[in-house]
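Quick start: read one record
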Amino acid sequence: MKGYLAFAAKRFVQLAAVVFAGVSAAFFITHLSPINPVEMALNRITARSQFSPDAIDAMRAALTDLYGVNEPLMQKYVNFWRRLVQGDLGPSLIAFPTPSMQIVMRALPWTVGLLTFAIVVTWLVGNILGGLAGYYQKNRALKAFGIVAMGIQPIPYYIVAFLLLVLFGFVWPILPISGGFSMTVRPGWNWPFIISVITHAILPATALVLVGFGAWFLGMRALVSNIVTEDYVTYAELAGVDRNRIVGSYVIRNAIVPQVTALAMALGGIFSGTVITEQVFNYPGLGSLLIEAVNGGDYSLVLAVSTMAIVAVATAIFIVDLLHPILDPRIRTE
């Protein structure tokens, strides 16, 4: 137990270092932008109504102090971490004066729900079917799955998303192709809203599942195809051990550990695929929010989304990493 706690502590230190480096990089990259947040905010405010020159000057002075435009870069960096610890990254430019983190927290549940569903379905179903395909290599249905997986896996997320959008939005218009829910329902814990959310999530979730399924299926099939030739599997078959037990306890269990490692490595790519997919379907998650912030020059919001994404992905990898010694006792934790 002490060895595992030491292992977890080391991984937590690595998590903190990754988050610190990633968030710091995001800060310096966003602050290389030539966009002046004060002038951007003033342009948006004055475009809605008329203000006197004195009022504009007063707002310019207040916004300059608010954004710390005239401060040295390192002072901005220190202030950024101070505000980040308090959960405050300043107001958004495109939705001034709404705090950036408040906007991010509104979009976060949509991305988390979509991403969680896609990862669970693709990883579990892909590995289970891939494991069966690797063991029962003559099964025709599993061979057909393999052909489909090889055909879909190389296709980028956005291509599959566009194909689904055209197919079910125009050729056979039976599913909504934009937004997170219908504007005719009231948000809340009621059945019309829940059903609307589910139907609007079908196409973006399907795009992520179709592409992700192929990679896990093919990877697991290749791993199991090598494991079935091992002596302990052959001996178990000759000893008359039940086939289901061989597949579950001897084959898939030993092949799943590399797939857990692959999951940790693939989380960043899966998130980037979610960003693109959300943009295609105008889904109200972090992906759409990030693109909107970039197009609007809102570096406060870009930094808030980037920070949340870095922390979330790094934490997910940390959790997956902690599962390794539990799944495979051969992994040393000391």
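The radius of gyration is 25 Å.
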